[in-house]
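Note to self: keep these together.
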Amino acid sequence: AYLLRNEGGNARHWIEIKTIGRESNRDGIGARVEVRTGAERQIDEVRSGGSYLSQNDLRLHFGLGSHVMVDEVTLRWPSGRVDRLRKVPANRLIIVEEGKGLVRAQP
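Structure:
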């Protein structure tokens, strides 16, 4: 057995993104999400599947380090539509609907 201790505290920030497709599939599978904070850029894609008889979490999680705000979130949907969100506060789950943008934020 192992015991892990967090010596860094909770000083780092994050954002989670859940996608809801309208023209694309309902879960937004295949959507590419880019998160930009200052000069840093992270990209991830909503994927389904996992291993045998399992499902991965469809939410995307991005670590933001010391940034308390995301400068821009760009979502490229499988349909070809592109949605952009600007100045999104950190440390929350945001729910983005294709063609509507941010529909809800949960701390």
